[in-house]
Amino acid sequence: MAETTGRTMRLLSWNIHKGIGGRDRRYSLQRVIDCIDHEQPDLVCLQEVDRLVKRSDYDDQPRLLGQSLQLHSVFQPNVPVGSGGYGNLVLSRFPVSSRHRISLKRGLRKSRGAQLVLIEAAAGPLHLINTHLGLDERERHWQMRRLLGHRLCRSAEPLPTMIVGDFNDWRNTLELNTLAMEGFQQVTRPVSQFRSFPAWLPVGGLDKAFIRGQIKIQEARIVRTSLAREASDHLPLVIDFQLAPAN
């Protein structure tokens, strides 16, 4: 388990597919909870989280996940479904001092968003961005430029920043073409070691992480347990890191 009183933290990022298994198509939020709990993360960034949707038994997944894992819960709805919807969720062992949403919707495409939270960790503040980008490559580059150029993102530039989520970036073009120019480094490489989709036979490294500022990565890995393979169509990404002191 990651230390919560020192400067070492563990983050888990995962597209949970609404709690619906990728192969058996069975809804079970408990499988997701058990898989997350096994990793004992301090920070959790989830995508495709349902709230009050029929396919997931009208469960309030943000509330249930937060309660079950005993973490602070911050939900960002993006896509309406009936009387409910789904979106991104941040769970944190540490207090969350601010939260913002940046819309990444382009034209008539599916509504997307970036969730920006300021984590007041024991070692200092962390600017954490949780996102789920579009399926079209040009759309993804537009979304990342919009995100990084937004005043909310610009205002947090002095802080250590981590961007995680489901980037849908099959060809890995976002790093050099967009993120590197803004000072971000990719944690999830070489790509061959971070294949996360589809869960039962992963060939694509869609779940990624990028950092900027005083962040020291200790270990990054894809969770390949049998439970993780059953719980969603993606595999979780786990990152152990420290907030390094400024020079």
Number of strands: 12
Helix coverage percent: 10-25%
**CATH first level:** Alpha Beta
Name the overall outline.
globular
Reading the helices and strands in chain order gives EHEHEEEEEHHEHEEEHE
Q: What is Rg?
A: 17 Å
End-to-end distance, in Å?
28 Å
Number of domain units: 1
Please state the structural category. alpha+beta
| CATH fold type | Deoxyribonuclease I, Chain A
Query: What is the CATH H-level superfamily?
Result: Endonuclease/exonuclease/phosphatase
Strand percent estimate: 35-45%
Question: What does it look like?
Answer:
- The structure is a single chain.
- With 247 residues, the protein is α+β, with helices and mostly antiparallel strands.
- The chain has one domain: Endonuclease/exonuclease/phosphatase (Deoxyribonuclease I, Chain A, 4-Layer Sandwich), CATH 3.60.10.10.
- Helix content is 20%, strand content 37%.
- It contains six helices and twelve strands.
- Helix 1 links the parallel strand 1 and strand 2.
- Helix 1 runs parallel beside helix 2.
- The two termini are 28 Å apart.
- 45% of the residues are buried.
- The N terminus is likely disordered.
